[in-house]
Hints:
Shape of chain A: globular
CATH superfamily of the largest domain in chain A: Thiolase/Chalcone synthase
Structural class of chain B: mainly alpha
Pathway (chain B): Lipid metabolism; fatty acid biosynthesis
CATH topology of chain B: Non-ribosomal Peptide Synthetase Peptidyl Carrier Protein, Chain A
Pfam family, one (chain B): PP-binding
Number of helices of chain B: 4
Radius of gyration of chain A: 20 Å
CATH class of the largest domain in chain A: Alpha Beta
CATH class of chain B: Mainly Alpha
Structural class of chain A: alpha/beta
Radius of gyration of chain B: 11 Å
Subcellular location (chain B): Cytoplasm
Oligomer: heterodimer
InterPro entries (chain B): ACP, ACP-like_sf, PP-bd_ACP, Ppantetheine_attach_site
GO molecular function, one term (chain B): acyl binding
CATH topology of the largest domain in chain A: Peroxisomal Thiolase, Chain A, domain 1
Amino acid sequence: MSFKRVVITGMGALTPIGNDVSTYWKNLVAGVSGAAPITRFDAEKFRTKFACEVKGLDINDYIPRQEARKMDPFTQYAVIASDEAMKDAGFGEGTIDLDKAGVIWGSGIGGLKTFEDEVLNFAANNMSPRFNPFFIPKMIADSASGVVSIRHGFRGPTFITVSACASATNALIDAYNYIRLGMMNVCISGGSEAAVTCAGVGGFNALKALSERNDSPETASRPYDKDRDGFVLGEGGAAIILEEYEHAKARGAKIYAEMVGAGMSSDAYHITAPHPEGLGAYNVIKNVVESAGINPEQIDYINTHGTSTPLGDPQELKAIEQYFGAHAPKINISSTKSMTGHLLGGAGAIEAAACIMAIQDQIVPPTINHFTADPSINPELNLTFNKAQKRQVNYALSNTFGFGGHNASVIFKKLES
Amino acid sequence: MSAIAERVKQIIVEKLGVEESEVTQEANFQNDLGADSLDTVELIMEFEKEFNLSIPDDQAENIGTVGQAVAYLEENVK
């Protein structure tokens, strides 16, 4: 049997630097940082007191209050991004067979805030069990896909993928494969996270994973800089509408790009540290390029995992150099986490959106906050420091790596007209 | 309207997002006010919290309308 082709026909984004795709993309290209002091809770006693929060959002502008209060913020973000993507895709009345439409979403944690609130409430009430009946349905990670499927009446496959910071990429890969196999025609995919909470920040602080540059939040996320000191926690998400190519063509849909590659690998090494030789990163890049059936030399842009941690950043670059060889310096590489912070399970979604927009506009968003070169990083690599670069982008690759050693990558291609 | 009835009405308006005028004595939480079974459980919990009492499950099952809630609370709130 031959596989079906899969294209992107709609996008929605809710990010620390923009609450819709066009604002997000404009700020990515302009190099705007989304980091600022934490407002979600009193972070005074925390080692890290800043994060990349979603800003200026009144949930009730998007979701009626009575519905919103039954959703954890990560689900609210999923709903808002999905609504934008569905509107963008412009499905006319009766153009979707709802039984062949799915929702495959990614979230690394799920309803952390809900869990925290309920347990704190339990402790504050003398440990007498008076849990809210909405506690479990709000907290469980699959609630985002459930709520979105109910909202749009999609009755095909709906579930959540969980692979820490690779979650949304795994969601895109599953959606891609089910459409290729003919099991769905349309899928709302992507991912969201809302972990800027006491437990989220405290937990990552305990791992010594977060930047503690409290005197300068906006320069704290500095992937590939010599003085990087950890990642900046972000929140939000993005929705990507994947659609079978003939289905999209038949309804005259606007097509952003084609999804042509999906790769996965595991480090099988350590629960949080990356493999010292970047083995998992190398394998996932090799797998994704091979799955696309292209030559490595055809890759124009890599949106890296690049979280701004001392260990992770150079290993990914080593894997890129090792795999691409002489082509590596010709690739534009950037970590947009320098602007958005790290959205964990939502990262793969907003970064896929960045790759798709890079193809659309033929411009590569920068890695901002580059001040001092890291001597362990090959200066010949083009890390797109500080300023966006115009260039031909036919193929864009997005890498995501998650705690647990999960690696997932995807490739998008400019569709020839 | 009693003070208890007024507080019950406010809780229902707040939790179910309905208009005050809809919250009549006869209004049934599920049939008239758009609540599902989980909303009803949450309402009972809110009454317990607001009036600082515990409503046993077998009693809670009999509270389906605004009037039934007010009657139960007027009888049991000390």
